[in-house]
Amino acid sequence: MRDAEEPRPLTECEVGGLRFELRDGTDDERAGVYYIGHDKDGNPKPALWLCSPLRIKAMTRGAKSSEWGRLLEWEDADGVRHVWAMPMELLQGDGVDVRRELSRLGLDIAPGRAAREMLITYLQAWPVLARARCVDQLGWNGGVYVRPDQVVGSNSERTVFQSMQTLEPALSVMGTAAQWRDEVAALAAGNSRLMFALACAFAGPLLELAGEDSGGFHLRGPSSCGKSTALAVAASIWGSPADYPRMWRTTANGLEGLAAIHNHGLLILDELSQVDPREAGDAAYMLGNGQGKTRASRTGSARLAARWKLLFLSAGEVSLSALMAQAGKKTNAGQEIRLADIEADAGAGHGLFDCLNGQTSAPALALALKEACSCRYGAVGLEWLHKVVANRAALVERVAADVRAFVAEHVPEGAAGQIVRVARRFGLVAVAGELATEYGLTGWEKGSTSVGVARCFKAWLESFGGTGRREDRALLTQVRAFFGSHGASRFQEVEALVGQVRDRAGFVRMVNGEQEFFVLPEVFKKEVCAGFDPKWAAQVLVDAGVLRPGAGGKNSTTLTPAAIGRKVRVYAFTAEVMEEVD
Fold it and tell me: In the predicted model, what is the mean pLDDT of residues 40-62?
C-alpha cells in the first residue's frame, strides 16, 4: 500500500460497463468529469458532463481499518484548492449530502438528475491505489496537528481529517504573521488582559504536551469595557474575528459539537448571560471535564461519547455564580475552578486596558484593534503550529518545567490544591505567550506575557476569596451567617428552667465572657450545613476550630439542658463561629 499520490493519475476508466473520463477541457469543451454511456445497440452516447474537475487522490481508512472514505481534491471558480476526505458511508443514500458539501465548497455540478446520480457512481467506481490514514478528531494525532483544511507536520503515512459533520470555515487566513505581529500584537503590548487573551489562544495546542486538563477563563465586566475586543484579538490568531468566536447561547448538544471541533485549541464563547441559569453550571462542568454525554447508536448500543481537551475563553457582564443565583442555584468549587472568573477591568482607568499604546482613548484603542484584526488573522496561528510541531519533543519537558516555575512563584505557600490546579492553567498560558514571543510572533518584550498573566491570576485569586479550599470557605461563610441571623433568637440558655424559644435551634451559655452554642442534630443537618454532607462539614468545622469535638472521636457531644432535664446530643460551637472567615 502506498500513501503517496499515484505517479500517473488515471484520466479515464471503465468499470462494469461504465466509462468515466477526466478531461482538461478545450475551447469547445468544458473541463471536468464526463460519463460516456451506450445506447441499446452498444453505441457510445455523447459524453455527459458531470462536474468540474474532481480528482480522487486516495482511499482513506481509520486506525482499525474502518471508516473508509475517499480523498477528493478540486478547485473552485477562484482557483482555490479544496481537499475533502469524504466518508464512503455518505454514498449509501441518495448522495445529496455529498453533493451539497461539494457544491458549498465551490465544485460546479451539473443540474440534471441523471448527471447528479452518475456523479455518485463516479465517486464509488473510480479506481485508486494510494492510501491515507483518516482521523475523525482535530488536534494532535501522533506527531502531527490536524486541522480541517490541512495537517501540520508529517507521520509515516499521510493523515487526513474525515468527518460526517460539515464544519463551518472558522479557520481562515488573511495577511501574514508579520503583519499580525506589527498591527495587532503591537497594540496589545503592555495590556495584561489583552496579552492574556492572546496567550490563551496560543496555549490550546500545548495542553496535550503539558498533560494538563481542559479549563476555561471568564472575563467579567460591564458592557463596553473591552471584553469583546479581547475575544476578537484572541480569535485573530486562528481565524476571522467575525467567524471564530461563538455564543454561549446554544443547546447542550451544540456545545458538545463546538468543544469537539476545538479539540487541542481555544474555544471562544461570548455573552455568558445568554445561557439558561439552570444549565450554566452543567455547561462549565462539561467543557472542563472534556467529555460529552453517552448516547445510543442506531443499533441501540452505546455510542462513543465526544471527547476533547481544550481551553475556553468566555466573556460576560455577570459571573457564573451570579448567573446561577438567578435560578436559585449555588456554584460549587468544581464549577468555579473549571471557569476561572477574572475581573475585566485592569484598574488603570481605561476599562480592560492598562495602557493606550498611542491611541487617544480606550474606545479609540478598541476600534484600532478591531480594525487591525479584521484584516490580519489566521496566519500567525499556522506559523505557531509549525513551530510547535517542529519542536514538540523538546517542548514537552520545557513546558512542564515552566508551568511548575510559574506555580512556585505565584501561588502562596500552603494554598489548597484547587488554587494550584487553576494556577497551572494560568502558568500554561504564560508559557505559551513567552514561547510565541521567543519564536518572533508577538514582538513583545521577553517576560512581559508572564507579568500580564500573573496580574490576571492575582485578580482571579482575589475574586476566588483566598488560598483555602473553596468548599471550606463556603461552608464557614454559611455557618457564620446562620449564627449571625439566629444566635440571639433561636437559642435557649442552658440553665434556663422555663421560657420556650420559638423554633429552637439549640442552647447557649457564657464561658469566660464568650458565648458557646449547642446545636441540635436535626438543625445541624438541615439548616446549619444545608447543601453539604454533614459528616464532612463537621470535620471541616472541627479543623477550623469553630466546632468542639466530643469524646471518643465523635464530632458531637452531650449536654443536659435544664429545660429538658436529660442528656441530649448536640454540636458544640465555640465563640469563634461569630468571627469573620478569612
Answer: 92
